[in-house]
Fold each of these.
Amino acid sequence: MSDLRTVPTLDDVARAAGVSTATVSRCLNSPERVVEQTRKRVMAAVEALGYTPNFGARVMAAKRTFTIGAIIPTMENAIFARGLQAFQEELHTRGYTLLVASSAYQPKIEEEQIRSLVARGADGLLLIGHDRDPSVYQYLKARSIPVLSAWVYLPESGQPTVGFDNRQSMRALAQQVIDFGHQKIAVISGITKGNDRAAARLAGLRDALAANGLDPKTMPVVETPYEIENGAVAFQTLMCAENRPTVVMCGNDVLAVGALRGARDMGLSVPEDVSITGFDDIELARIVTPQITTVHVPHREMGRKAAIALIDMVEKRGTGDTIELKSTVQLRDSLRDLTR
Amino acid sequence: MSDLRTVPTLDDVARAAGVSTATVSRCLNSPERVVEQTRKRVMAAVEALGYTPNFGARVMAAKRTFTIGAIIPTMENAIFARGLQAFQEELHTRGYTLLVASSAYQPKIEEEQIRSLVARGADGLLLIGHDRDPSVYQYLKARSIPVLSAWVYLPESGQPTVGFDNRQSMRALAQQVIDFGHQKIAVISGITKGNDRAAARLAGLRDALAANGLDPKTMPVVETPYEIENGAVAFQTLMCAENRPTVVMCGNDVLAVGALRGARDMGLSVPEDVSITGFDDIELARIVTPQITTVHVPHREMGRKAAIALIDMVEKRGTGDTIELKSTVQLRDSLRDLTR
DNA sequence: ACCTCCAGTGTAAGCGCTTACATTTGAATC
DNA sequence: GATTCAAATGTAAGCGCTTACACTGGAGGT
């Protein structure tokens, strides 16, 4: 029958085991420094009282929290889920805990979340992308909190990043599309403001056009938040314009799936009437009919490597590497080869 | 030029503003108790120093953290995403922060996460389902941490739950299936052990069969983790048995989408050759072709109500309501009406 | 027998904050 | 001008933990 009114503290355990608080603390944090017999006694008391260390107190007294914070733009679609899961798994095997918050793609909320996680003692932070107010990085630097930007590869930024080159990747896909004989390309992009991934992908698209003697300026572009519904709407907008495109390239798979639905709603068949491409290669891309041509991104590997790199930074084993992952064009049914 | 080597504390702010630490604290926590002029001076100092309260210290000194913890089985698929997003939004408008952890459907990890969140001072906890070791509830009770179980409605459990009746919901869907003339029903269920939602859904299925003079014992069932790939495999297993079912009912939409893919791979068309049903009505169900007949669950509403109920428990020390939400059968193309 | 040394343990000083209680201030009242 | 009293602010005691440092006793060296 334990006391229901109060939570046991280190003191209680110490008293119950007949040792000092220091010994109890050592049993918990560096067991090898306590002789077996004592340790057993202490552990028994811990067990008997159902003691759990108070995290706040621990953070205050020590410095480390073995907590990593991650802030992702959204939990609602699967873009970040897989990578984050891998990130979490790797952290877990290394004894760290992951705290996740989502910013709903809003810089203000993201800053709030950053402060919140830092205040909670996060040893390090994983952020998505790199495009944010410099004051954020200053703030983090002043507190010497290591930050790693993922989902992007920006060696020139001077900050550690783990990811792939969004611009090059999209350019490669666009090159493939052009090689297939497409000249009239329309684009459904994510909101580029405050989202360097979306911006880079759009830039890559323009690169490809320019490199092939096409005028990027004439390319129709709709920017819209990453949501299926928006993809459908944007698609219809683009297809209703004069001079219909032969292919609609989307900033990510979610938009592409939306475009696909837009096509279905308009009674257009893909890829016979119009081709559609995506980006990310989330599960969705292989589930829909037709399956979507997209850029495959090694999400799990990115998550794992991000975890390793960030822990290295936290534990001072490195200043933070910049790691590039390779993406690959994933050809599937939604893209038609017009040359055949 | 600020000192990069040390993080400003309440003391620093107090000194900079020429007041005591108590006044600074009051400015931050109950501004109305400080006269305007002083408050301005303090806030200016806070701004100038870039001060952020140390969360650990705050937790220790006060009791409240305005943090709610949630542990979900997985982040990898969308089942919980929407509800959780709504949960988070509602918390945010009420001044609470959400900390999310995932348990990978493993009770051991879930317990670990619970302890971790409690140690971090979570004022309340949201858990998915209700089926877990009693010691967990004891632990939480001993610390008077309110817990709310969501995604289930269990008035008889004596614990607050916010959700729908999984058993009844599935039974209703099965009734519809039977009314459409299906007699040979096969099932792809989630792992029922340690997952009361999956178990209840399966039970609801059996209820419906029994109520219609069908023998639940002869119903083929495959249990498999909630993943698309598994759905495909399970589907093929079921369809290769003798006495093919006319309908494969799945424990959730993810499995149903997998089954759909399984059918495609086998060259079967849905619903002509075989019908498929899901559960949850996540976005996925409407994206695939054919769209999946499923049970619609008001995820966002559930999330919102869960937030409100949990905060009530935290603030009012009330015992917590049990709230039932209504699910509805959502007929779509993947289910064939054999009577016509 | 004496000294060293060290593994094992205890003592106690904070970590940065909130808040009960004490003190000061100044406007209002007599 | 003296008195009263509420509002504004200050003082200081913890919250539960880690860890530098102090202490103890026994093994090993001389």
Note: The radius of gyration of chain A is 25 Å.
Amino acid sequence: MNIKEKLAELNEKGCTLTIQRHAVLEYLYANHTHPTVEEIYYSLKKKFSAISKATVYNTLELLKNYGLIQEITIEKGKLHFDYEVKPHHHFLCHRCNQVYDVDVEGCPLAGKEMIDGHKIEELRPYIIGTCSKCLKKKG
Amino acid sequence: MNIKEKLAELNEKGCTLTIQRHAVLEYLYANHTHPTVEEIYYSLKKKFSAISKATVYNTLELLKNYGLIQEITIEKGKLHFDYEVKPHHHFLCHRCNQVYDVDVEGCPLAGKEMIDGHKIEELRPYIIGTCSKCLKKKG
DNA sequence: TTCTTGACTTGGAATTGTTCTAATATTAGA
DNA sequence: TCTAATATTAGAACAATTCCAAGTCAAGAA
């Protein structure tokens, strides 16, 4: 889903499209690197020096609740965010703390609505390890 | 793996078996409810009134590094721990914040060592939703 | 056993990440 | 343009975790 579609959806659903909200969504659209809240905040500060951390948190929460972005809890103690909401695996390198997308086919949970009597609402398939770049450094 | 085997493994590897470390491992062995650090700390306080939070954190980190327990980052902002280290899915209910084990067969990552050039060291397959108990409450 | 050294634990301070709050600013509709 | 509702701001408050210095304990040497 491109950014115009997401903005249109927000608009349709009656969400006020402030410049800050636009900026946060735009930032995630331009940076598919799974940034942390801190990274988003400091990057936006460069353009909108008055933007507040609370606004960044509120906006991320709002976009998440509209189903337009994805929250990632792969790294302990801090949140990452992803523009892409289609279910896909995330890989965290415990050396450089970079989060990568990885493609895994054949997940048995795909499309499932219930498991053990619990209602499935979101999949968060995470993998921890050492990324290709850090493997090379090792030598 | 039962607790005696884990204690033996610690001993073999030259890890000092203090009463605090024993207590933390014992607590996880007796409570397969995926407790948070806070829950572990306050439960142990009842028996060992002098135990410090730092020791609980240090011990959990140590046991994790020995591969004897598992850290769970399913809930934002806080850690849960699991005595069981065999890969299995965890389900977080976003209403009651309870973490459940769920059984999912046929994970395509099982046994895999590499993905996209990254070295896989740990799988963290998480699912978010509403648990069976909370689904009943809803009505 | 006593001594010594290194490892472990403690309590509290410091740090980090997130949420809350009250005041101000902006928006959309009348 | 006015009004009421909503959004943003700055900083305080809060929660989870890590750090630190001091004291304690454990294992091996004498």
Note: Chain A touches chain B at residues 71, 73-77, 79, 91, 93-94, 100, 102-109, 115-132, 135 (CB under 8 Å).
